[in-house]
Write a structure and sequence with these properties.
This protein has about 80 residues and is α+β, with helices and mostly antiparallel strands. Helix content is about 20%, strand content about 10%.
């Protein structure tokens, strides 16, 4: 019998626009998030985002939270 263990959940917070550093007159950002969503799931994700904005008054007054479950993979350096 094979036993499978549940992977530990890594929790990251991405603050859009935070951490910008200007070097030689150009913006440099510490992180980039690219969200790849299957076309058939894109509408559901858009609805989830709109709902989070609509209900934003229930939580943090500055940020909305949009939990998304999946994998976080590092892209190769350009």
């Amino acid at each position: 019998m094979t036993t499978t263990t549940k992977p530990k959940l890594k929790d990251f917070v991405f603050r859009q626009g935070a951490g910008n550093v200007v070097v030689d007159g150009r913006s440099n950002w510490p992180a980039l998030v690219r969200v790849n969503v299957a076309r058939e799931n894109a509408l559901q994700l858009a609805i989830q985002l709109i709902s989070a904005v609509r209900d934003a008054d229930r939580g943090d007054p500055v940020y909305i939270e949009l939990p998304m479950f999946g994998t976080l993979e590092e892209m190769p350096a350009e």
